[in-house]
Amino acid sequence: MHDSVDVLIVGGDAGGLAAMAKLLQGDGVRPVCAENGVQALRELAETDPAVVVLDAAALGSASFEIAERIREDPDHAAIPMLFVGAADLDHAAFRGCESGVVDRLPKSADGRMLRSKVRVFADARRRTVEAGRAARDLADERERYRDALEALDAGVVELGPEGRILYRNKAFVEILGRAPAPSSGANTSRLRLAPESARDLPAVLQETLAKGDGPGAWSGRCRTLDGRAIEVEARWTGRRLDASRTERRVLIVRDVTEQRKTARAAAESEERRRNLVDAARDAIFVVDAKSGIIVDANPSASEIAQRPREEILGESFLSLHPASERDFYRKLFQDAVSSGGVAPRDDLSIVNSQGRSVSVELAATVTKVGGRDMVFEAFRDVTRRREMERKLEQAALFDPLTKLANRRLCVDRLERALERSKRRGAYNFAVACIGLDRFKIINDSMGHAFGDKLLAEAASRLAASVRRLDTASRFEGDEFVVLLDELASPAQAVQIIRRIREALEEPFLIDGQEVRITASYGVALSPEDFDDPEDLIRNANIAMHKAKTRGCEHFKVFHRKMLDQAIRTMNMERDIRKAVADKQLHLVFQPIFSLANRHLRGFEALLRWRLPGQGLIPPSEFIPIAEETGLILEIGRYVLDNACQALRGWRDRFPAAEDLSVSVNCSALQLSQYDFVESAAEAADRAGLPHGSLILEITETALMSNPGLAASKLDRLKARGLSISVDDFGAGYSSMSRLQRFSLDELKIDLSFIHRMNETREDHEIVRTIINLAHSLNLFVVAKGVEQESQLAALKELGCEFGQGFLLRRPMEMREVASLLRSKSADLAG
Q: Is this prediction's pTM over 0.70?
């Protein structure tokens, strides 16, 4: 079947066109008719005819004009034309050639000649189309071939005579080490690899290629142009000649470094696996997943089955198990195959060659070995373990030190109490959390062995103080949880707690030493809307910690506000940690003045926290939480460093700051740190400050919480030249005589006394007494919270040296301090 070819017939009336079309139609020729030139051009826009047949007899001279119009269009200029029936053949021939007509027929020519002529043009068009299609197919094939070569991970090079490169793909350049790509025709010597030995890849290839025309191969180790050591495999075709008689050979190079590394690793892994399997204490049977036949077993498998390995291999896995249970084990095996394994379970058994049943734990996995699915069954003899578990189960429910119930047993019994409370309307119970006060101090100072004995004795008294139906447990450390069950009323819980407290108040005699301890108590009463015992324990614990904040031996009953407060505290802790990490904290500085002449003495560094979306958070809200969580240590280091650096900057810029000091508040937790003295001195050193210009403010309460440790630390601070101030003096109600043991430089009178000193004679006398006693100890006095002129006048009259407060100056930002110091420096210069 020929491809259809269009032939455009132009001229004549409809009858004449139809006759000529009928004559030419067939053998793959499809006539297209046009009565005149306009229609002819329109048809040419829609078709691509193999020849245009012009009926000159019908068209007359217009046929030549039509031919000229067709030739004028570049898209149709190459279409051959057949000029039929011209009245004057010579003139027609001339005009036809001039117009591009390539052939002509006289009017007397019969239909067969016309048909034959048209078939010649049609066949020529088919050959042209086929040739074009073949060329496109060849180009497409070459493009696909090149795309395939570029997609290969193997390097491909086509070599011409004398080893010249006619083509190379991207992978070949990458294997060489991503060197600049050589141009076609470059010799292989331009692609030389830096050899690891005397012979590199190109040298070997050239030498081998020169030996003969046949194919070849080479593998070895070499180094790439960018210095990587790689392993290479190369193969090449024999010498051949292409259609142009050009010699060509194809070279294929693969980087097999990772492949060989993987193969070596796989071999090593298999060897390790084999060694591990053989050395494993578990009995391992390798079973073909399809047939269920045992194909391998390790020495432990022989031991547990009491049979030689040779007897086990080739047997069905079912031969390992009791005959009466084989249906169960067959299904278990099938489940393992379908799901990829069996999670460990220890309720199975193996029958050994003596017929004895061995309790085992099984874990199974499915792995492909040599293309086949294998089930690795690992059995462990758990007979002795089961016996021990039965003995230990009871012991696992009790604390070994105190012999009380442990957390697990306590939670279990509390769950049962919750279940009973749902079934019985008049059922009451309570959970009490008991924490020993300051037990850590006793433990650290007397030793852990002493602390353990104290805990055991306290637990014994606790157990003796509750009823038999109650559950006393040691929850963790020095905290105990008691489930008070079947209470007649909530008041009965209070009676039992009072009995426990009285028992713990009695002195303990441990290793010949008398010790007294106290405890804090939190109670959560039986709820109506709780399902989780941990929630009840949490609530009792919150109440206990709330009791601790009020001092020793306090008792609190949980209510919802406590939980809300605990959640707020937790959220605040989270926000403080984020504030430290995101550097949301900053310092402001409140000036301290000489009251006699209003000269600037220095600044107190005050911490501020602006929380995005909430504004300024008062220190009274976040400092206690920072101290409780230990974040105060990191915050304290930040304040020390930044306060010292700020003072250093002012001293460098302003003459008026040359003799100023900076005061920094230090918490009790900071003071207790072993490296506090060194940290404070190093902060001053890093800023290049004299140690005396850094004043460490420590509250009276912090000093008195552990006077011995505080005295030692203050002595060391003074030895390093640092200044010490007692902050908020008077709030802790300590006597001046107790302060004599500390190395101090000044006292700061608590602002509550300053605010009231002019209201009552008693408060005025308290301030006078503090100032006089401080002077008797050679200490300076700083008054905090000076807000009224009357307060300032009274303090000056009493001989107070320094003061700070809103009357004198409010806390200032860094830029405000700079402005103040610039002004004072200008006054000095004037």
A: no
